[in-house]
Design brief:
With 444 residues, the chain is of the alpha/beta class. The protein is 35% helix and 22% strand. The structure holds zinc ion.
Length: 444
């Protein structure tokens, strides 16, 4: 048994902020939570505000190597994608392991205790399976283990280059398994284990035809696993989908059985009112990735309308140009303000709830400081220039609207301390990032 004593702890939207909270941990799980108590001998003190571990609902770890390099010049999502493909083409399993380890270690420093990796870089550059066909996915599992965070490997089906049925070409041949059955056979060899859960992904309605989408959805339903898909990130996707099928991506996905309470639609930026109603009515979670969506000039999704319609919200760092879920959380509210010219669409508690939503990536027991939950604790310091002077009555608002990843002081994930006093306990993260992002092959 280990014990942590939080000066202040956020016990969820109902519990609010509590003082002097003792969290007792047995193995990986929280055994007891006691408010208003003094620390017993041996308890480790957590200063500032302690929140549950943050959940990163959508990541592409290898995009971390692109930070800065895509931030020059003009263009749009599609010109950005060309550069992204260059890095995707250069990765082998060893380099992928190195890059993902550094990216996940950065996430650990930011208070993220579980990540959903939307993984489609399956095969070698010629599109041939590695000797172990899941070698690239296994590299991600190894990377998350080294960084000390849990991984949901969202093994993603990617079969064609566009809605017109063009075959995969160039770098894309690495992504494809040929057909949905071959995808299911390969992904089916992956098994849940401690720290790893396997989920299914449909890359998008562009990349997977309706029959294959239905097969992936059935695979996920059989395993009671989460199912994620990119949805309506770009207007061009909507236009191509309407032209090819007469339906919006959301209605096409629904007709293939893809929407539902185990499903997460990522981005959901350009939706019709009918799309919003369908996503809400099916209780499909929506994952907003505002720092990436603004970076790629995608647009602003209808977050409040989706939440009102019944969709739970979660958050993702996506391209990892920014790894800071505080920034993602407040952006959901602040983008709504820009769009509506009104303030106050989401409370700080609602935004923090989205930032700690582990259910969408298949850890429904996590994201709460309560007995039985995984012991994921994130201590946010109150003594940086950003939070010094925060008023005791509005500490949660200060944390959500003013904190950054740099204010995360201590992180415990699955009962193990992985960040102490702002440093990763086993990885020199800046050195690891420098080494991997500047590796000659990735610089090309
Ligand atoms: Zn994505």
């Amino acid at each position: 048994m280990t014990a942590w004593h939080a000066e202040l702890a956020w016990l969820g939207p109902e519990g609010g902020l509590a003082e002097r909270v003792l969290v007792e941990v047995e193995g990986e799980r929280i055994a007891a939570v006691t408010e208003g108590t003094d620390p017993p001998p041996g308890a480790t003190r957590l200063a500032g505000v302690t929140i549950p571990g943050l959940a990163n609902g959508h990541s592409h770890a290898f995009h971390r190597a692109l930070r800065g390099r895509t931030h020059r010049g003009r263009g749009d999502f599609w010109s950005w994608r060309e550069l992204m493909y260059r890095v995707a083409g250069a990765l082998d399993p060893d380099r992928y392991l190195e890059l993902a380890t550094a990216a996940y270690a950065e996430m650990a420093l930011a208070g993220i205790t579980a990540v959903g990796e939307f993984h489609y870089l399956h095969h070698d550059p010629a599109g041939r399976p590695y000797a172990d066909p899941n070698r690239m996915g296994e590299a991600l599992a190894e990377a998350a283990g080294r960084a000390g965070i849990r991984l949901t490997l969202i093994d993603t089906c990617y079969l064609r280059a566009g809605l017109d049925g063009r075959p995969l070409a160039g770098v894309q041949v690495r992504f494809g398994d040929g057909d949905a059955q071959a995808w299911a056979e390969r992904a089916g060899a992956l098994r849940d284990r401690p720290g790893l859960r396997v989920a299914a992904g449909v890359h998008s309605v562009r990349a997977v035809d309706p029959a294959a989408m239905a097969a992936v959805a059935a695979w996920a339903a059989d395993r009671d696993a989460p199912l994620h898909l990119h949805l309506s990130e770009q207007r061009a996707e909507n236009e191509a989908c309407l032209a090819a099928t007469g339906r919006t991506p959301a209605t096409l996905a629904e007709s293939a059985g893809v929407l539902g309470p185990r499903t997460t639609a990522v981005h959901a930026t350009h939706l019709t009112e009918d799309d919003v109603a369908r996503l809400g009515a099916t209780r499909t979670t929506v994952c907003f990735c505002p720092t990436t969506e603004r970076d790629l000039a995608d647009g602003v999704g209808p977050a409040r309308a989706l939440a009102d319609a019944g969709s739970p919200l979660c958050l993702g760092s996506d391209s990892n140009a920014v790894v800071d879920l505080f920034e993602e959380a407040r952006a959901v509210e602040l983008d709504e303000r820009l769009r509506s010219e009104r303030r106050g669409h989401f409370s700080a508690a609602e935004l923090l709830r989205a930032a700690t939503d582990h259910a969408s990536i298949g850890w429904p027991e996590a994201g709460r400081i309560e007995p039985g939950a995984p012991a994921d604790l994130v201590a946010v310091s109150l003594d940086s220039v950003r939070l010094a002077g925060a008023h005791p009555d509005t500490l949660l608002e200060s944390a959500v609207f003013a904190a950054t990843a740099a204010d995360v002081r201590d992180v415990i994930a699955s009962g193990r301390q992985i960040v102490r006093d702002g440093r990763h306990t086993s990885i020199d993260v800046p050195a690891a990032l420098q080494q991997t992002c500047l590796a000659p092959l990735l610089r090309a």
